[in-house]
């Protein structure tokens, strides 16, 4: 999916796992079909999963991620992976890698879940619980999304140039030019920072789609409170978004910043993953469509 990504055969992964974690040497390994974009995922037995970074990672980065995973799992009202251990880079695989606990569930579907009221209420409960965690003296670390929307102008411009065949890029550009001028958050809250459908596991319960687990909590940390609102735009049509907004008591400014973060993320998915990850590409196109069709946002540019 990415230029220069690391290759890893399952047989080599089995050797690495058995060497670093001898107690797992007899476990069955099952590669997990790719829905994410930054790790090769291999299930280890029934209860664990190995994550091998496609673009490489330093050992200290995965140690930091493991600590964040623990804090996230302790804070989330829904099941989340916990760290089992990390491993250093080697001649066979030039990156540190990690083993985590496995969480059952299916990735949320932005079409099938679009009208689920129960899922919207579950996400309200999740985001409320994360926001209730004490930020202490921590601040946004400057990595990725969650600071100032305007910091992403160059990337957005690149995405718009490459996306004219996928959606109304001119209209998306006009909306971005409005949203990126919004005042930044006055104070951060603790945030998952990547609440995309592929990180949200669901299960059917008595005919309703319920949140069954939350993946990739390794970036749990302070960020713009609007950042986790991307889930509303990735997953729901207007009624579901309304439920989530009401449940979190989000004002106009925060809601619009959330739309800005969703647009920034989605603009990069459609064209970038068009060939290598069609499901991720489709998510980006779907989310951009929801943002551009929203009546409240349309009034800002029409």
Automatic annotation (TrEMBL):
Domain Aminoglycoside phosphotransferase: from-to ranges: 36-261
Domain of life: Bacteria
Signal peptide as annotated in the record: none
Pfam families reported for this sequence: APH (PF01636)
PANTHER family (alphabetical): AMINOGLYCOSIDE PHOSPHOTRANSFERASE-RELATED-RELATED, BIFUNCTIONAL AAC_APH
Protein name listed in UniProt: Aminoglycoside phosphotransferase domain-containing protein
Organism annotation: Microbacterium maritypicum MF109
